[in-house]
Specification:
The protein has 182 residues and is α+β, with helices and mostly antiparallel strands. It has one domain (23-164). It is 19% helix and 28% strand. It has a five-stranded antiparallel sheet. A hairpin with a 2-residue loop joins β4 (114-126) and β5 (129-140). The longest helix is centred in the middle third of the chain and has 14 residues, at 84-97.
């Protein structure tokens, strides 16, 4: 194992548990921080953060605290032929949320635009386990939020045939109770 430099300094500033509050399920007011267009794969990679409430700047704080945070605060908006309607709905939400904004086909002009991100749980497979992540599953306008049209979304479950099959093999380990530290 690689020895961690400045171990004593790091240890002195770290509590026993490093944690942060989990985002709740449901809508949050958000702003687009940056945009990158991948023309070859036909999608926009959008970095965003929360701008209001208890979780304001949560992704910025996570990045400052932990470094590059790979999936939080990032959206992928496909504009492939099969996703054009979804892309149009997201752009419409941005136009309705930002006075005077009209989509001009310049992705960088999305920076600073506000929207409502509706967070919901979604199952995924990691190796041989089903896990749950919290993602923005809906992009809505601020007006839709004010009008009470943004509702909490149910968990998105994997189809049963997409879940890993349970194995019946068990592993027997000999544990001496006297060796336990408690």
């Amino acid at each position: 194992m690689r020895k961690i430099e400045n171990w004593e300094q790091i240890k002195a500033t770290t509590d026993e548990v490093v944690s942060f509050e989990n985002l709740p399920i449901g809508p949050q007011y958000c702003v687009i921080k940056d945009v990158q267009d991948d023309e070859s794969k036909e999608y926009l990679k959008i970095w965003f953060d929360i701008v209001k409430g208890d979780f304001k700047d949560v992704f910025k704080e996570q990045e400052e605290r932990f470094g590059n945070w790979p999936s939080q605060g990032i959206l992928y908006w496909s504009y492939k032929k099969t996703a054009e309607r979804f892309f149009a709905a997201r752009i419409t939400a941005l136009e309705k949320s930002n006075d005077g904004f009209k989509w001009d086909w310049l992705p960088q002009n999305l920076k600073g635009k506000y929207f409502v991100g509706n967070f919901a749980e979604e199952e995924y497979v990691d190796g041989d386990e089903v896990k749950v992540s919290l993602k923005v599953r809906e992009v809505r306008s601020i007006q839709a939020m004010k009008d009470g049209k943004v509702k909490e979304l149910p968990r998105k479950f994997l189809p049963e045939d997409a879940k890993p099959q349970a194995t019946t093999q068990t592993v027997q380990k000999d544990i001496n109770v006297d060796d336990l530290p408690f």
